[in-house]
Amino acid sequence: xxxxxxxxxxxxxxxxxxxxxxxxxxxxxxxxxxxxxxxxxxxxxxxxxxxxxxxxxxxxxxxxxxxxxxxxxxxxxxxxxxxxxxx
Length: 87
Known about the structure:
By secondary structure, this protein is mostly helical. It has a domain at 13-57. Helix content is 69%, strand content 0%. It is built from two helices and no strands. The chain has helices at residues 7-61, 82-86. The longest helix is centred in the middle third of the chain and has 55 residues, at 7-61. Residues 58-87 are annotated as: Disordered.
């Protein structure tokens, strides 16, 4: 016994799969972007903290051998959210 699926049903399944795969890829990209932005923001905070701590030590000891180089200021360390982009 051969089971036959109508062509329209197959086409609908393929179309829905493509749409679902694209939506999942977009969700994955958004999650990855959010995680990277959070990591970047955390790294900036840590760098600033260490620069402040090492800077105060350098002032006490009279040398700046352990100080971090100054960072160029960033316009906005976090990417815009979807609601900000839509406005």
